[in-house]
Design goal:
Helix content of chain A: over 70%
Shape of chain A: rod-shaped
Largest sheet of chain B: 5 strands, antiparallel
Largest sheet of chain A: none
Strand order of the largest sheet of chain B: 6-7-11-10-9
Helix content of chain B: 40-55%
Oligomer: heterodimer
Order of helices and strands of chain B: HHHEEEEEEEEEEEEHHHHHHHH
Radius of gyration of chain A: 64 Å
Number of domains of chain A: 1
Distance between the termini of chain A: 180 Å
Number of helices of chain A: 2
Distance between the termini of chain B: 38 Å
Largest interface: A-B, 42 and 75 residues
Structural class of chain A: mainly alpha
Number of helices of chain B: 11
Number of domains of chain B: 2
Number of strands of chain B: 12
Structural class of chain B: alpha+beta
Strand content of chain A: under 5%
Number of strands of chain A: 0
Low-confidence stretches of chain B: 13-53, 430-438
Radius of gyration of chain B: 26 Å
Mean pLDDT of chain B: 82
Chain lengths: ~170, ~450
């Protein structure tokens, strides 16, 4: 067999070892600094961002649920309050009407009473007036009678006095 | 269905066309100096140069698929796209001779990557720079003619070894390859010169480096600009891959300290993946960087350093003096095994990646070589084998795409698990269990 070349890939040339080392080490250092480390950092950051966003979304959803529940509770409470207020208003109304009625009755009674009193007063005044007039008239009558009959009749005079007294009692 | 068949036929025609046009390219391994070309040859000028050099005729061994595949997976001092050889800068160092720098275009390489000129005793053989050690060889730029290279078997330390020779002025000069760091284990070793050139693999690494730097800086910019928004475009394409490595590899395997080691894992993953995929681009050189032991070795050594430099007390305790095991067992078995494990782990990383990627490249090259093995330069068999070979190659390329991802992923995953075992604290055994389920 005649060929000039050997199976030389298993005979590492010194020069190729040198160049491989130089090129790979430069590649390693350069790429670590320029590319791999920034990429690792960016990927890490993005991963944490995504995780953060997911957590945030979860939290917001939870918050929304809480808010909704709160709103519902508030609504229920409001409804109850409304019912309460309505009930109270009704009661108040009733009470006011009742009070008004009572007061009206009382007032009416008072008015009636005062009216009665006044009537009584008037009546008494009228009676008194009447008595006075009756007395006066009686005196006049008596004067007339006396002028005519009482010329010395004491019995008749006392009789007249008794009559006057009777009129007073009424 | 009809559309698929039509597009398949289109691809096949294109492929067949490309193969018939480039028939000489896969034959590159089989072109020794002075080869007498057969009927299929379409470059009649080839046969002449070596006769002029006068080193005698050399027999024709025909097409050699093994050599073609080895040539294809090899690193080169030229960037070859089909028959085109783009020149690359050569930076060569020989002790006592100093640095020599020039463009590999000055070798005037032919379509097989064989240079027609020698520069300061350096020649280009099959796309690789070799050195003529003989001081009598003239310095400076020397024309050596067409096909001046031939291979001869020599005895070296009692072993037979084939060495390319340069034929110049009717004289043969032996050449030596560049120094390799395999300490002679795989047939290489330290020689008389070192090649620090910007080879095809280095250029490929630079291209991938620039491409990835562009991609990732724009992605990082997009993250800065579109802060807090959904990813789009390139950012959206990269992010799932990035998150996959982060969430499925780094976090479960390393544990609490994942962020510190993630840039290293990302660099490993994307650089290996980028190089794997770049090598799969058809008609683009098919660079085999991740299939080269030099590159995977560097990655393994860096992994070894990162793992062991971040090893805590718990890790070293487990390696050197495993608690809860009888001392005799510790001394005889466990500690030696665990200690060797420290080195074996990155070693397997190195071999696994290299073997997988190189195997893929070789298989595809061999499938295409089938056309030349069975076709023998004739139309009928060539066409027949082309159909089968195209189907096989397409299938293999699909698998190779998968392998490109899997091997990058496996390398990263294992690195992460080694780092994880080094940094886990005493109570973190559940991490190990979690990792085992993946």
């Amino acid at each position: 067999m005649l060929f000039l070349i050997e199976f030389n890939v298993i005979q590492p040339p010194v020069g190729l070892i040198f160049w491989s080392t130089v090129i790979f080490v430069i590649f390693w250092l350069l790429m670590s600094k320029m590319a791999f480390k920034p990429i690792i950092a960016a990927l890490k950051k993005r991963e944490s961002d995504i995780q953060g966003s997911l957590d945030e979304a979860k939290r917001v959803r939870q918050e929304m649920q809480n808010l909704k529940a709160e709103n519902e509770a508030l609504l229920v409470q409001a409804r109850e309050e409304r019912a309460q207020i309505l009930k109270e208003a009704k009661e108040a109304g009733n009470r006011i009407v009742e009070e008004a009625k009572t007061r009206a009755k009382e007032d009416a009674q008072k008015i009636v009473a005062s009216a009665k009193e006044q009537i009584e007063h008037q009546k008494m005044a009228a009676i008194t007036d009447l008595k006075n007039q009756v007395g006066a008239i009686s005196l006049e009558i008596a004067e007339k009678v006396i002028r005519k009959e009482l010329r010395g009749n004491a019995e008749q005079e006392s009789f007249v006095n008794g009559l006057v007294k009777e009129i007073k009692l009424n | 269905m009809r559309r698929y068949i039509l597009s398949f036929i289109c691809v096949f025609c294109l492929a067949a066309f490309a193969f018939s046009q480039d028939q000489h390219a896969p034959q590159s391994g089989g072109h020794p100096a002075g080869e007498q070309h057969g009927a299929a040859d379409h470059q009649p000028a080839h046969g002449e140069g070596s006769h002029d050099a006068g080193c005698g005729p050399i027999e024709d061994h025909g097409f050699d698929p093994g050599a073609t595949a080895f040539h294809h997976v090899s690193d080169q001092n030229v960037y070859n796209i089909g028959p085109i050889q783009l020149p690359l800068p050569c930076i060569l160092y020989a002790p006592g001779h100093g640095f020599t720098t020039f463009s590999s275009g000055r070798f005037h390489p032919d379509s097989h990557g064989n240079g027609h000129a020698a520069i300061d005793g350096y020649v280009l053989v099959e796309g690789l720079v070799r050195r003529i050690e003989d001081p009598s060889f003239p310095k400076g730029e020397v024309e050596v003619g067409h096909h001046p290279y031939l291979k001869k078997e020599v005895q070296e330390n009692g072993k037979e070894k084939e060495i390319p020779y340069v034929c110049y002025n009717s004289q043969l000069y032996p050449t030596v390859g560049h120094s390799t760091a395999d300490f002679g284990m795989f047939g290489g070793g330290i020689t008389s010169f070192y090649d620090f050139s910007m080879t095809k693999n280095v250029v490929t690494m630079l291209i991938v480096f620039l491409f990835l730097a562009f991609v990732f800086s724009s992605v990082a910019k997009a993250y800065a600009k579109r802060d807090g928004m959904a990813p789009t475009g390139l950012q959206g394409f990269i992010e799932p891959i990035f998150l996959f490595i982060q969430d499925e590899v780094a976090k479960p395997f390393i544990g609490a300290k994942w962020e510190k080691y993630l840039p290293f894992l990302m660099s490993i993953f994307f650089f290996i993946l980028g190089l794997n995929l770049f090598g799969q681009i058809p008609f683009f050189g098919g660079s085999n960087v991740t299939g080269n032991l030099a590159f995977t070795g560097v990655m393994a050594i860096l992994t070894f350093l990162v793992v062991n430099l971040s090893g805590n007390k718990h890790y070293w305790e487990h390696v050197l003096w495993m608690p809860g095991v009888p001392s005799v067992l510790k001394v005889l078995i466990l500690t030696p095994v665990e200690f060797l494990g420290i080195f074996i782990k990155p070693f397997t990383l190195m071999l696994r990646l290299c073997a997988n990627i190189t195997a893929g490249h070789i298989v595809i090259t061999i499938f295409i070589s089938l056309i030349f093995i069975f076709g023998k330069g004739q139309w009928g068999p060539s066409l027949g084998t082309s159909i089968g070979s195209t189907v096989l190659t397409m299938f293999m390329m699909a698998i190779e795409l998968l392998v490109a991802f899997i091997q990058a992923f496996v390398f990263t995953l294992l690195t992460a698990s080694y780092i994880g075992s080094a940094v886990e604290d005493g109570h973190g055994h559940d991490h190990e269990e979690a990792g085992a389920h993946h």
